[in-house]
Structure formats: structure tokens, C-alpha cells
Amino acid sequence: xxxxxxxxxLLEIAGSHKYLTYASWVLSAISxxxxxVPFYYIWKMIKEVLEVAPNFGQAQSxxxxxxxxxxxxxxxxxxxxxxxxxxxxxxxxIATNLRIQTMEHIVKLPLGFAESFGSGKxxxxxxxSSAATETYLAHQLPDRANxxxxxxxxxxxxxxxxxxxxxxxxxxxxxxxLIMMTxxxxxxxxxxxxxxxxxxxxxxxxxxxxxxxxxxxxxxxTIFSFxxxxxxxxxxxxxxxxxxxxxxxxMMFYTAAINGVFATLIAGGLLLTQDGVTSGFLLDLxxxxxxxxxxxxxxxxxxxxxxxxxxxxxxxxxxxSVLHLKPLEExxxxx
Length: 335
Description:
Layout: H1 6-14, H2 18-34, H3 37-52, H4 62-106, H5 113-117, H6 119-161, H7 163-182, H8 186-211, H9 213-219, H10 227-258, H11 261-272, H12 279-291, H13 293-323
Helix pairs in contact: 1-4, 2-4, 2-6, 3-4, 3-12, 4-6, 6-7, 6-8, 6-13, 7-10, 7-11, 7-13, 8-10, 8-13
């Protein structure tokens, strides 16, 4: 039997509110495409300035084009806000239903379950794991639709004006995407699981520490008396330092790659203008320099979406670890 995806499962929990989630994706994608329109009007403004230079007073359409750019930018923001409103309504419903479903199952479990499972760990699963799905649905999924629509619109813009500069703009993007792939995948998913396990251990031991504070005050003890709590903190510290060092180098190269579009365009521009610079090429080069930062923003969004997808997968597995526990059976022959 094919395993149900996390997204389809969450939408199933949403009930009729799932249509709000669908609407948020559509609105977010539309917003992304509208947000590219102001760049066209900026291009028209630059073109007019270059055509009338140095008699800039002859540029009659600058104000009109400027206001059109502002208008479409405002429309894009409003459409995006409408999409976020839809996504938040759906996400809140899903998180609420997930918590209700989990708590209804917990009350059917034996009383000794919380003692063996750990009250701190249980609280973290109920509160934080459901909250992780809320963040994923309310922000990450609309951003994913936005991140898919933006490159589609960008590809059209990049190749309409000068295909050579368009290809040069994509070189750092491809390099950054390849580097990003090394920071995601199955290995990183295992790392995310280790991270959540370390947090669970600390949460469990922290609850026990808080309960033991009266003993600490009475007998003048320190945190070192709670060996398990201190050990859980030390394990978390060791893990975080190792994880940070592992991702330090690829993250450095990724940041350099996605922010290196400007340098690539300048270098390419020097090579392509060895026989002289035309006003048309200068116009296209300026336009590409202005629009390409959108690429780095889009790639960064994709990277964080991959991370949050792993967090949600881990959160649902932890919720399932509670839901799969067998409830206390009622006797068929009560006294």
C-alpha cells in the first residue's frame, strides 16, 4: 500500500478548510507574477532616460511609468496578503484538529503512559509538533507556490531582452542549486531527527528539574546534581557545534554563488562589449542587474522550504508515535 504523503494527510485533517489552502497557493503564484510587472516599467523608465540623455527634461513618461510600477507592486502585496489570510485560516484549523485528535487518543491511554513516555516530551509533541505543521501550511506552502511561479516569469524576462545575459544570470543559480542539494536530502533528514531527539531529551529533563527545584533550594544543590539534565544539555551542545561546522562550508559557497550574479553579469558584459558598448546593451545590462536579486531571494526560499518539509515530516512521525500507542481496553464484563 502506497504511503500517504504528509501534505495529503494534513489536507485530509483540514476538512472543508483545505480549499482555503488551495486558494492560498493560487493567490501566492498570481502575486509572484504580478510582482515582476514593475520591473518592466522600470526597464521602460531606464530606456527613456538613455534615449533622451543628456536632455533628461524631455523624458515625459517617467512619472507615469513610475506610478504604474508602484501600482502593480501594491497589487502584488495585497494579493499576497489575501493568500496568507487563506493559508492561515486553513493552517489554524489543521493544527487545532491535529491537537484534538492527539489529545483524544492520549486520554484513552493507561495512566502510567505519561510516566514512561515523559511528560516533557509529550507536551512538546502536542504543542510544538502541531505548531510545526501550522508554520509549514501557513507560510511555507504559499511561499513554495511563489517560488515556483517566480522562476517561470523570470525565465521569460531573462530571455526576452538579451538571451546571452540571461544565460549568464543562470550560471550562479545552477551552481547555488547544486550546492543547496548537498545541504538537503536523506542525510539532512536524519540530522533533523537527531536534532529533535536532543530537544525532546532536554525538554523531558527540564520538566524533572523544575519539579525538583524545591529540593535544590532546601539542600543547596546545583544543576550538576541533576546529571541527566546536564548530560542532555551537553549532548545538544556537541551536536549543534558539529552540525554547524558541517554546514559552514557549503553554506558559505551557496551564499557566494547566489549573490555572485552581479559579478557574473559585469564580467560577461566586459567580454560581450569588446567592440564597443551600445545603448541597447547597456539598457539590458542595467535591467538584468536590477532584476537578478529576485533569483537569490527565490533560491533562499526554496532552501528553507526543504528544511521545513523535513521538520514537518519529523513532527508527524512524533505525533504518530503517540497515536500508534494502544489505548487501554475496556473489559467486556464489567463488575
